[in-house]
Specification:
The complex is a heterotrimer of chains A (219), B (596) and C (199).
Chain A (H helix, E strand, L loop, with lengths): L12 H32 L15 H31 L6 E8 L2 E6 L12 E4 L1 E5 L4 E7 L4 E5 L4 E5 L5 E5 L5 E6 L12 E7 L1 H11 L4
Parallel strand pairs in A: 1-5, 4-10
Antiparallel strand pairs in A: 1-2, 2-3, 5-8, 6-7, 9-10
Helix pairs in contact in A: 1-2
Chain B lengths: L2 H9 L2 H6 L4 H31 L12 H6 L1 E2 L2 E2 L14 H5 L6 H38 L7 H20 L22 H4 L3 H30 L12 H32 L13 H35 L6 H14 L15 H29 L8 H24 L1 H7 L3 H31 L5 H27 L13 H4 L2 H31 L56
Antiparallel strand pairs in B: 1-2
Helix pairs in contact in B: 3-6, 3-7, 3-19, 6-9, 6-10, 6-11, 6-16, 7-9, 9-10, 10-11, 10-12, 11-13, 11-14, 11-16, 12-13, 13-14, 14-16, 14-17, 16-17, 17-19
Chain C lengths: L1 H10 L12 H30 L13 H20 L7 H31 L8 H34 L3 H29 L1
Helix pairs in contact in C: 2-5, 2-6, 3-4, 3-6, 4-5, 5-6
The chains are: A alpha+beta (219), B mainly alpha (596), C mainly alpha (199).
The structure holds protoporphyrin IX containing FE and copper (II) ion (CU) (2 copies).
């Protein structure tokens, strides 16, 4: 089942995958235990004429044990999850590159600040549905929306964030591997939601340099 | 039967007996009929959804839409008169407008899943689990002759009926039915410009408001009845867990639905009077809707599962011939689910742009709510230990409920972990979770409950051979349909997309979609057995005795089917509902009305 | 003979049943009011969220609300609630009860009229549903309350009519008090809205 996760190319993706595996194993063990007991009881205590069941109304000690055990269990899961969440969505690292992404029905508009590194000037570069970034660099995405709620989803980067009209939401990633990846929209945004798709190109630093030289306006 | 009684009966007209009846049992049957009709409709919508996902953009098979019909609206020269004058063009009609060329297409697809969820949640599961079982069982199980407010009860059903008509109407208005998901997130839902959906969405809002009013009336009735009308000796802690669960559900409805109503009003204002509550450019906030909706929405999902938990507890104990394990723990678990249910709504909004620090606190509260769910599961297991289990059809469904609910609860843990949720939010993983708790949970309990109480309702038993075939087919094809959705979700497959083949990274997984579609059709076919069994047994089933399952609770003391007023004399309760296998007794059961 | 007695018990209130914990009508009213409170909490929550995230409140081009007039109006409504509370035990002279009921409703009516007048003025100043989210939430919240006042008034009219027709008999008492409970809810909710919205 685990092979089905798309290849991870982001620095923090490993942490998400690790948590996923962790919870996967914990829940599997619990499931097997519960199912095992259930099947065992079902076979062992199947109906026999004339036999009576054990007459008991419960056991407070057992209640206490499994209540505290599950409480501790889920608390641990929450506690190990917290740092990853903090790293990914709360404490953003300083950016090397900032790209402004505006979602609209049904496109991603990627805006680069251009040579002056300031958004909203004449030398900005806008490309539809194509995000170009260098590998091993911290990228900030300034996420906006023009119309309805969309969700910026890059499966390989383990990144998802809704783009909300009226808000400017910043998310970050650092890609570890070059290549071409898909950026679907993950939040229902209208009849064109299915098929709203951008592409992410992660370049080596030389290639990125070349791409910038070729495409960015002169300063 | 005395003469007096006879006169009373013949005086009752068809209207007051079958239509505007005040009798809780008749109202329960009305809810059941409404729920089952909507269940069938919702199921058919699901089949269409699956067709589109398994075979994207291919024309629908069978439905009998010849090319000629799709192009011209005529079959062999017969014009579809029903739609005369509705559409501008002569050759246009509802079908050619909605599924041109027999292909579902993205617009209609969005309406399909929106309406599938809306219908299943508000018009199938709630009317059956809460409306039907609540009405039928509460007075019978607590030994009352009827509800506290019979007139209100009747009204509640007919308001729900009107609500259903309004919802169905939406399918036929220009622009199509609501297509913003059952969660109706604005601005997509708040503006015609963005969705192309006009009155469909308005009718969706109005219908849900009407359904809310109906639920409020029901909730007030249930609570008052349970608090005030219990028979002598029926203390709170002698109530069957089904009654407890419905009691708690009524409280949840009472507190949650008004918040939905407030949100729906704002949405309607935005749509009709041009306010901008959810419109950022006018100073509003789209996320406000999500807060209000999920404040209602999370308690709502517990409204769907709690009656199932109650029913499962009752059936489990009855067929295990053993007292329920940890009765009080069960009650306290349900109460804490209800309380915690109001502080976890943010787990639906982790990626919504809500302050991520807030997301962190919602992660902790969500983890906490997994605890009472686990307690319930362990207590069900405890009930099975040392039991004497009769594998009747209701019991099979109950056991399926327990095991499927475990899977659904465990998948909830993944999503409660905020970092993992980043990846699986809005993917098929969520769809899998939903269906394991709502189909695997609520629906199996619903089936179990119907098989179990059918004799009391209609005086005849359902056919158990058909019941077994239905059960095994449902269990197998349910898992074949919904388990693979976990895998799709892990592969990154988004929910609510009409055509997965548009994405390179999903193309390798399309065979899973196809497999799911085939299983879903089989699952759908299996339900025909159930519906056949249901309607056939109503008239032709074997006549049932008063207490066919040798159960303890009060509904089995009443005659089958119970007459108006339920009990000939007010029952007096001497013990708890789960006294099975009491030592030193000949039978392995001990009715609540038996002196001890 | 046997059968006959069995039938007659069905038609009685269950003799064996314990005394209800609380009068069913009151219980239902409390729950109804609880639900109403949740409805208003939803809108108040929305109000607070919008207000706290707004840059300025009210927006610069929007009129401020008539806090003074509405303050007086608040006192009117509270006074009507006070009068209503004095006929909670309506066992004295029927005429006095009716007179008090009419007084309560008149104050309620006056409250509504003043509000209506203020609304017309506000609309004249350019505060409308569409002018800003400030206007929208104002009309929604205050309007929802006004609708409840109207509902309460109709209910009061109904019981006034009932009292005139048949006086206060035991069977009417629940209906009578249900209307009063609803009126108390409408009255007591108002000051909260007033302080939240008008300042
Ligand atoms: C063990 C307890 C449970 C936990 C920890 C849990 C957790 C969650 C979380 C975190 C989500 C949001 C996932 C996302 O959108 O990213 C979710 C969604 C959902 N849950 Fe649960 N859940 C639990 C039990 C239940 C139960 C008992 C039901 C219903 C009967 C239920 C019904 C749903 C539904 C319908 C959704 C999807 C709503 C939507 O977006 O359309 N859950 N659950
Ligand atoms: Cu989108
Ligand atoms: Cu939830």
């Amino acid at each position: 089942m685990l092979d089905w996760l798309p290849e991870n190319i982001s620095t923090y993706g490993m942490k998400i995958d690790f948590l996923f595996y962790l919870i996967y194993y914990i829940t599997n063990i619990i499931f097997l235990l519960v199912a095992g007991f259930m099947i065992f009881f079902m076979i062992k205590y199947r109906y026999k004429e004339g036999r009576k069941s054990e007459y008991t109304h419960g056991n407070n000690k057992l209640e206490l044990i499994w209540t505290s055990a599950t409480t501790i269990g889920v608390l641990i899961i929450a506690l190990v999850s917290a740092p990853a969440w903090k790293e990914i969505k709360i404490d953003l690292p300083e950016p090397d590159i900032i790209v402004q992404v505006t979602a609209e029905q049904f496109n991603w508009r990627m805006l680069y600040p251009g040579p002056d590194n300031v958004f909203g000037t004449a030398d900005d570069l806008e490309i539809e549905n194509e995000l170009n970034v260098p590998v091993d660099k911290v990228i900030h995405i300034k996420l906006l929306s023009d119309d309805v709620i969309h969700s910026f989803f890059i499966p390989n980067l383990r990144l998802k964030q809704d783009a909300v009209p009226g808000r400017e939401i910043i998310v970050w990633f650092e890609a570890m591997k070059t290549g071409r990846y898909e950026i679907p929209c993950a939040e229902l945004c209208g009849f064109g939601h299915s098929g709203m798709l951008g592409l992410l190109y992660v370049h080596s630093s030389e290639d990125y340099e070349a791409w910038v030289n070729e495409n960015w306006p002169e300063s | 039967m005395t003469e007096n009684d006879h006169v009373e009966h013949s005086k009752q007209s068809i209207w007051s007996k079958y239509i505007f009846s005040f009798d809780h049992k008749m109202i329960a049957k009305q809810y059941l009929l409404l729920g089952i009709s909507m269940l069938i409709l919702g199921g058919l919508l699901a089949m269409l959804i699956r067709w589109q996902l398994g075979y994207p953009d291919e024309p629908l098979p069978i439905i009998g839409l010849s090319d000629q019909y799709m192009e011209t609206g005529e079959v062999d020269g017969v014009v579809d008169e029903m739609w005369d004058g509705w559409f501008e063009d002569e050759t246009e009609n509802w079908l050619t407008m909605t599924i041109p060329g027999g292909v579902i297409g993205p617009e209609f697809y969005n309406s399909l899943f929106t309406m599938h969820a809306t219908i299943m949640i508000f018009f199938a599961i709630m009317p059956i689990l809460v409306g039907c079982f609540g009405n039928f069982l509460i007075p019978l199980m607590i030994g009352a002759k009827d509800m506290a407010f019979p007139f209100l009860n009747m009204l509640s059903f007919w308001v729900a009926f009107i609500g259903s008509i309004v919802m169905l109407w939406g399918f036929f208005v220009p622009g199509g039915h609501a297509a913003a998901g059952w969660t109706g997130y604005p601005p997509l839902s708040s503006s015609v410009e963005f969705s192309g959906v006009d009155w469909g969405q308005n009718l969706w809002i109005i219908s849900l408001m009407i359904m809310g009013i109906s639920s409020m009336m029901g909730a007030v009735n249930y609570i008052t009845t349970i608090v005030n009308m219990r028979a002598k000796g029926m203390t709170f802690f002698r109530m069957p867990l089904t009654v407890w669960s419905l009691f708690i559900v009524a409280i949840l409805l009472l507190l949650a639905i008004p918040v939905l109503a407030s949100a729906l009003s704002m949405l309607l204002f935005d749509r009709i009077w041009g306010t901008s509550f959810f419109n950022a450019s006018g100073g509003g906030d789209p996320i406000l809707w999500q807060h209000l909706f999920w404040f209602f929405g999370h308690p709502e999902v517990y409204v769907l599962i709690l009656p199932g938990m109650g029913i499962a507890s009752d059936l489990l104990s009855t067929f295990a011939r053993k007292p329920i394990f940890g009765y009080k723990a069960m009650v306290y678990a349900m109460i804490s689910i209800a309380v915690l249910g109001f502080i976890v709504w943010g787990h639906h909004m982790f990626q919504s742009g809500m302050n991520p620090a807030l997301g962190m606190t919602f992660m902790f509260s969500t983890m906490a709510i997994a605890v009472p769910s686990a307690i319930k599961t362990f207590n069900w297991l405890g009930t099975l230990k040392g039991a004497n289990i009769k594998f009747t059809v209701p019991m099979l469904n109950t056991l399926a409920f327990v095991s499927m609910f475990v899977i659904g609860g465990l998948s909830g843990i993944f999503m409660a972990s905020t970092p993992v949720d980043i990846f699986i939010h809005d993917t098929y993983y969520i769809v899998a979770h939903i269906h394991y708790v709502v189909f695997g949970g609520s629906m199996f309990a619903l089936f179990g409950g119907i098989y179990y109480w059918f004799p009391k309702m209609f005086g005849r038993g359902m056919n158990m051979t058909l019941g077994k075939i239905h059960f095994w087919m449902t269990l197998i094809f349910f898992n074949a349909t919904f388990f693979p959705m976990h895998i799709l979700g892990i592969g990154g497959h988004m929910r609510r997309i009409a055509n997965p083949m548009q994405y390179e990274f999903l193309q390798d997984m399309q065979w899973i979609n196809e497999f799911i579609t085939v299983s879903a059709f089989m699952l759908g076919l299996a339900q025909i057995i159930f519906f056949f069994n249901f309607f056939y047994s109503m008239y032709k089933g074997k006549k049932s005795v008063d207490n066919p399952w040798e159960a303890n609770t009060l509904e089995w003391v009443a005659a089958t089917p119970p007459p108006h007023g339920n009990f000939p004399t007010p029952p007096i309760v001497y013990g708890g509902p789960y006294e099975y296998g009491v030592p030193d007794r000949e039978e392995d059961w001990l009715s609540q009305v038996t002196k001890r | 003979m046997m059968g006959h007695s069995a039938v007659s018990t069905v038609n009685e209130d269950f003799g064996g049943a314990p005394k209800p914990l609380i009068n069913s009508t009151y219980l239902a009213m409390f729950m109804f009011i609880g639900a109403e409170l949740m409805f208003f909490s939803g809108i108040i929550g929305a109000f607070l969220l919008l207000r706290l995230s707004a840059i300025d409140w009210p927006p610069v081009d929007q009129p401020t609300l008539p806090a003074f007039v509405t303050g007086i109006n608040t006192i009117l409504l509270l006074f009507s609630g006070y009068i209503a509370s004095r006929i909670w035990n309506p066992f004295n002279n029927k005429d006095i009860v009716v007179r008090n009921l009419i007084f309560v409703s008149s104050l309620g009516l006056l409250f509504l009229s003043v509000q209506g007048y203020e609304w017309i003025r506000l609309i004249g100043f350019g505060l409308t549903l569409q002018s800003s989210v400030y206007g929208a939430i104002f009309y929604l919240l205050i309007g929802a309350h006004a609708m409840h006042v109207l509902g309460g008034l109709l209910w009061l009219f109904a019981i006034t009519f009932l009292t005139i027709k048949s006086g206060i008999v035991e069977t009417n008492l629940n209906k009578f008090r249900a209307a009063l409970l609803y009126w108390f809810f409408v009255v007591l909710l108002w000051p909260i809205l007033y302080f939240l919205v008008y300042f």
